Amino acid sequence: MWFVSGCKQSSFALPWRTLLAYLVALNLLCPGSAKLRVVALNFPVTATVGQDVVLHCHLSPCKDARSLDIRWIQHRSSGLVHHYQNGEDLEQMEEYKGRTELLRDGLSDGNLYLHITAVSSSDSGSYMCTVQDDGGYVEAMVNLQVSDPFSHIVHPWKVALAVVLTLLFASFVIIVFLHRKQAAQTKNLKIKDAVLEELPVILVKKIEEFEKENSQLKKQVAELVEQIEEFEKENSQLKKQVAELVEQIEEFEEHYMKMVLSAADLKKQVAELELGESSPNQRNMGFPTG
């Protein structure tokens, strides 16, 4: 079931579901009202890809809009979808050229209907219908929802695009990994270079410490050599003393042997003397002498 919408009867009708909204809008059309308003649907307009749609707005109170400045603006990009002024269509967004039409039949009745042909998914969104006259600037918002029944179909170009994007992502990950690896290697090389730069200083310091220790060692060796020389000197004197002592011992032994020989001779002489004394006594006692 369809019902007529707008200030007056129009060649475009709406389904019965819009009746309640438009009844509310029609109740606001007070002939005695001095303030001009733009009235739009309070629910979205739906369509599928490739269909034609009409975005509905009208003036309240009803007023001839043929001499007004009427603009339909895409809310997302703030771009002009259609611009009408004093009976002429002016500039608009490139993607809407040749696809939009402001329906002139209803302008005299205050109907600001925008006809869009062959809608696409990118046309979904909010659209502002703005009107400017001597009394000021008024606007209303209309929502358009475009569905794509074939969006679930996987096209070969989408598969190819997914593969390309995957390869690009993998390449990006590899590049990032290689970059980080190169950065880490560069950092390690810088650390090694810093160590190599410090190495001569460390070596010079070690050499100085070694030379200092070597000097001390040489000094200790010289002292030890001096002590050895003193020891050898003392040893030489000790050997000389030992030789003299040995010589004295030999002289003592020689003297001792002489004394032993002298003692033996003396003992022999004593024995002979004793023997000589015993012979006269034997004769006196009547013993024969031998």
UniProtKB/TrEMBL annotation:
Biological processes per GO annotation: regulation of leukocyte cell-cell adhesion; regulation of T cell activation
Ranges of residues in domain Ig-like: 31-147
Alphabetic keyword roster: Coiled coil, Disulfide bond, Glycoprotein, Immunoglobulin domain, Membrane, Signal, Transmembrane, Transmembrane helix
Subcellular location field: Membrane
InterPro entries: Ig-like_dom, Ig-like_dom_sf, Ig-like_fold, Ig_sub, Ig_V-set, IgSF_BTN/MOG
Keyword Zinc carried by entry: no
Coiled coil: 207-255
Domain of life: Eukaryota
Any GO CC annotation of this UniProt entry: membrane
Transmembrane segments: 157-178
PANTHER family according to UniProt: BG-LIKE ANTIGEN 1-RELATED, BUTYROPHILIN
Protein name (Swiss-Prot/TrEMBL): Myelin oligodendrocyte glycoprotein
Upper taxonomic lineage: Eukaryota, Metazoa, Chordata, Craniata, Vertebrata
